[in-house]
Amino acid sequence: MDNEYELELRGITKRFGGTVANHNVNLSVKKGEVHALVGENGAGKSTLMNILYGMLQPDEGEIVYKGKPVSIASPRDAIALGIGMVHQHFMLSPTLTVGENIVLGHPPSKSWRWKPAELEKQIELLKSDFEIDVPLNVKVQDLTVGLMQRVEIIKTLYRGAKVIILDEPTAVLTPQETAGLFQTIRKLTQAGHTVIFISHKLREVMEISDRITTLRGGKTIGTANKCDVTSRDVAQMMIGREITGLTREKSHTGEAALLVSDLTVAGDQDTIEVNSISFEVHQGEILGVAGVEGNGQTELAEALVGMRKPLSGKIEMLGKDITREKVGKRLAGGMAHIPQDRLKEGIAAELSLTENLIVGRHKSQPLSKYGVINWKEADLVSQKLIETYDIKTSSAREHCRNLSGGNMQKVIVARELSRGPKVIVACQPTRGVDIGASEYIRQMLLNLRDEGNAVLLISADLDEVMELSDRIMVMYEGKKSGEMTSEEANEEALGRMMFGLAEEKKEVAQ
Ligand SMILES: Nc1ncnc2c1ncn2[C@@H]1O[C@H](COP(=O)(O)OP(=O)(O)OP(=O)(O)O)[C@@H](O)[C@H]1O
Ligand SMILES: [Mg+2]
Questions:
Q1: Are residues 222 and 271 in the same domain?
Q2: In which band, very low, low, confident or very high, does the pLDDT at 112 lie, cut at 50, 70 and 90?
Q3: How far apart are CA 192 and CA 496, in angstroms?
Q4: Which protein residues have their CB within 5 A of the ion that is ligand 2?
Q5: 248: which residues sit within 8 A by CB, 6+ positions away?
Q6: Which atom of ligand 1 is nearest to the CA of 403?
Q7: For position 445, which CATH number holds?
């Protein structure tokens, strides 16, 4: 049948120098379906979608839309055809308002006059049709990532998108926000829109998609109906092997390696974000911090690593008061930091992999002698990390900006965990990382703990927190709203604490 598919990518090949990011890839998408595109970090998903959206030109292959071959030379062409995309790394203008971002480059009507009221009416309609709630007059920089993403979606809809590409939309979302997004996706497909959905989270893929296409190493592995496969099958298709599961030894905890007393930290707007919090992380222990994003976790991590000055309180690491120490000194003293925002804080995108991988130890032996970097040694170190963490790149000299999202994350984790840290502050360590590599990173954290180091794990992924932590502390409105051992913890109890409901429950139970 000719028009069974709304959209077909046929035989797409895309090369970047020596890397073949897409190799004769085929993808056929039906109207009104949610089509999941899955595969390892660097498999070529974003590249393929950037080709469909006109950001990249394929070296070979064709795109057929509504039965006709089309040429998509730019996003403008894609938008004109009704194809919209929300990128893995958002592309909004932070200093403009939500409303301005939505109409940017696409004025509300054919008339030359700017009619804010008309614009607002149109957007309000879209908002209610698809259950998306965003304030229009707030600057984008003041939004949470969850809200930014809603802006991106409204923006594509406002431009008339019928096919909407969502590149890892849930990587930065809380479970509650993901549920909201799925609600929106369902409304979209009910209204006849088509959604291409990229995610590394199997649970989500199994929940939302109708069909699933897997890429591996730039090639199409196949397309399956969701109802014909199990999540194990999908995992197998993604990484080409079974996931083995973690080995978790019993913990042997020692002294407090990180001791936090009465820590109070203000946020960017001078509001109190961490409110007199006290806790300790012992040697040989993973303390998980659970909580809905925006309850002080970010500010807490920033204060711990020295990026944000606390208003009051004390931080001790390995018996030493480090409250006033600079970031560099803390890192040299044995702290490692996996930051939440990889592009802003974790990586220098314009530098090479090698440079990014050795930062932090480039001033000491054997990487440096008399203040001069030994590049031969540096290349050896980075080559080894690229192999052990399976970072997909054509060369250690490649700029980090050319890595796929998940591979950037692997660079940060590899650097931080290989420096021989004693105290690890890990924020969303597996965000955007494929299931095989996530498992590896989690195992590394467990190994570091088994070697007697202390890990503070801040993660919005409750499954991850429960799987790794020995103890779990829940944060709500800047305070500790509860604490549990991993044996006591379950999703429901943690969920209650995450919404500050733990106290009430206790009273009812008594
Ligand atoms: N501009 C570029 N220059 C050089 N190589 C690139 C460029 N863009 C992508 N690549 C390479 O192409 C391959 C595919 O990358 P792509 O971003 O499509 O992967 P992905 O499947 O989206 O991975 P992830 O799950 O990590 O986001 C990677 O090896 C990447 O390093
Ligand atoms: Mg990608």
A1: no
A2: low
A3: 37
A4: 46, 88, 404-405
A5: 446
A6: 31
A7: 3.40.50.300
Determine the atom of ligand 1 nearest the C-alpha atom of 47.
18
Per-residue tokens: 200: 């590394």
Q: Which of 499, 505, 86, 501 is nearest to 293 (CA)?
A: 499
Ligand 1 atom with minimal separation from the 40 CA: 25
Query: Do 235 and 267 belong together in one domain?
Result: no
Q: Give tens-digit pLDDT for 356-406.
A: 998 877 777 777 777 788 888 889 999 999 999 999 998 999 999 999 989
For residue 21 and ligand 1, the question of a CB distance below 6 A is answered with yes
Predicted confidence (pLDDT) per residue in 52-88, tens digit: 999 999 999 999 999 999 999 999 999 999 999 998 7
- What's the first-to-final CA gap in the chain, in angstroms? 65
Residues 190 and 306 grouped into a single domain: no
102: which DSSP letter? Answer: H
Give one DSSP letter per residue of 251-310, joined into a string.
P---SEEEEEEEEEEE-TTS-EEEEEEEEEEETTEEEEEE--TTSSHHHHHHHHHTSS--
pTM for the structure as a whole: 0.88
pLDDT of residue 504: 45
199 CA distance to ligand 2 middle (Å): 9
Q: Is 298 in the pocket of ligand 1 (CB under 6 A)?
A: no
Return the ligand 1 atom nearest residue 215 CA.
Answer: 21
**Residue in the block written with tokens 């403008």:** 76
Q: How far apart are CA 145 and CA 143, in angstroms?
A: 6
CB distance 93 to 101 below 8 Å = yes
Q: Which of residues 184, 206, 239 is at a domain's end?
A: 239
Q: How confident is the model at residue 23 (pLDDT cuts 50, 70, 90)?
A: very high
- 221, 329: one domain: no
Q: Which domain does 422 fall in, by range?
A: 258-509
Q: For residues 477 and 379, state if they share a domain.
A: yes
Q: How many helices (H) and strands (E) does the chain have?
A: 17, 22
Is 407 close to ligand 1, i.e. is its CB under 6 Å away? yes
- The ligand minimizing its distance to the Cα of 407 is 1
One domain, residues 203 and 276: no
| Atom 16, ligand 1: residue with shortest CA distance | 44
Examine the domain organization and report whether 285 and 224 are in the same domain.
no
Closest ligand to Cα 390 = 1
How many folded domains does the chain comprise? 2
User: If pLDDT is split at 50, 70 and 90, which confidence band does 4 have?
Assistant: confident
What string of DSSP letters covers 444-501?
A: HHHHHHHTT-EEEEE-S-HHHHHHH-SEEEEEETTEEEEEEETTT--HHHHHHHHTT-
Q: Give the Å distance between the CA of 46 and the centre of ligand 2.
A: 4
